[in-house]
Amino acid sequence: MSDQVLLDCVEINTGNHITHSIIWMHGLGADANDFVPVVPELKLPKPSGIRFVFPNAPIRPVTLNNGIAMPAWFDIISLDRINGPEDEAGLRETQQAIEALITRENERGIPTENIFLAGFSQGCAMALLTGLRHPKKLAGLICLSGFLPLAANTEAERSQANIDIPIFMAHGTQDPVVVPERALNSKAKLEELGYRNLQWHTYPMQHSVCLEEIRDISDFIQKNLA
What we know:
single chain, 226 residues, alpha/beta, Rossmann fold, seven-stranded mixed β-sheet, 21% strand, globular
């Protein structure tokens, strides 16, 4: 393990013999418990042997919210919901923190190819940023109501180990927070870069999660369990 300080996490095991892990990042202003209720709703086969790892984002000032400090994976600088400036330093810092969680799962006996990264909104951005750059093959990415950050850097920085990674992307058609156009731009960029193993789903909702989406996530997880 590196000297990286590990994020505080909530963990749920779906069996006694853990073979897979899902590291799942929450959205802006939420916490590690936000997606805990989703685990039983996934209705995974028992025992499925999955460790769900829900990390807490650090508390940091968010420029868009008048500098008020809250749980955030990175700063949000601009009102421009499509082409605004990005907090590259914050994104890179959190990328390293998620990498440390992957390393811990490796040290607990879970091979990288059995680790999924998942996230909602800001957490989705972090799953994409980290997963596409990770040097070893991951099991899959679950990307909910978010976008591809640092898109212009992705081609130069991505890992060939994950060029065929299964990607589940989902978005609400009425999302006022991460507008659908931004998510569609992200999908188009990934396809342009050759990510062909990508599922795209839309649901008639705003910036949230729905039961149909949870069922689709469950199908994606089960399909990609090694």
